[in-house]
Design brief:
Helix content: 40-55%
Radius of gyration: 18 Å
Order of helices and strands: HHEHEHEEHEEE
Bound molecules: S-adenosylmethionine
Number of domains: 2
Shape: elongated
CATH topology of the largest domain: Rossmann fold
Number of helices: 5
Distance between the termini: 67 Å
Largest sheet: 7 strands, mixed
């Protein structure tokens, strides 16, 4: 019992500074860092399973701590799964998780607005709503026809979603998913 308590204390002492730095990083870099819930991830996986024929890769724009990329790679091991994240700590935790899970995910530490998305087949974004207009412009310029784009909660000002999915019926706007299929205007 005493050994267990010591082990617990050692773990807390090791992880507490990381957690503190993680919080500081989140506050300094601005923006929210909510992770997509398990329930929403299930829906995303269902959407990919239904729509994916001919799709080879999946991009999470702002992959955070890696919850979505890890779940998608687990379900679709044949997909090339890419997480783009600008914050070092989120990326560190995501890479740590994938190391222990032996999951082969490509992480790119960069601003998503600088990422090359011309080859993307499926794109996922759970981001602040104020960046959605510029993201829409970038995706309109860059994506191939018929690329699937799934957004969580925030949506594009001009693109019309082909479908929307309510994840939490009691709070329909929370984690509502928007499915878009890229087309040229
Ligand atoms: C709400 S979290 C979502 C994390 C993950 N996609 C998920 O759903 O669990 C948004 C993430 O996007 C990242 N992010 C915001 N703006 C970004 C940008 N311009 N370039 C790269 N990452 C960005 C944030 O650092 C944060 O980790």
């Amino acid at each position: 019992m005493i050994i267990l308590i010591y082990l617990l204390l050692i773990l807390i002492i090791i992880f507490l500074p990381f957690y503190f730095l993680f919080l500081v990083n989140t506050v300094l870099m601005g923006g929210h860092d909510l992770a997509t819930s398990k329930k929403a991830i299930k829906k995303i996986i269902k959407i990919i399973a239904e729509k994916k024929p001919g799709k080879n890769n999946f991009y999470d724009l702002g992959s955070g701590r890696g919850n979505v990329v890890i779940a998608v790679k687990k379900k679709f091991p044949q997909l090339l799964v890419v997480g783009i994240e600008k914050r070092a700590f989120q990326l560190f935790f995501a890479k740590l998780k994938t190391f222990f899970l032996k999951s082969k995910i490509v992480f790119q530490k960069e601003d998503l607005f600088k990422a090359d998305l011309r080859d993307a087949d499926i794109v996922y974004a759970y981001l602040w709503s104020d960046i959605m207009p510029s993201l829409e412009e970038k995706l309109q310029r860059e994506l191939k026809e018929r690329t699937l784009v799934i957004t969580n909660t925030s949506y594009f000002p001009n693109w019309e979603p082909t479908e929307t999915y309510v994840v939490w019926p009691k709070k329909p706007d929370f984690e509502k998913l928007f499915l878009y299929i890229k087309k040229s205007f």
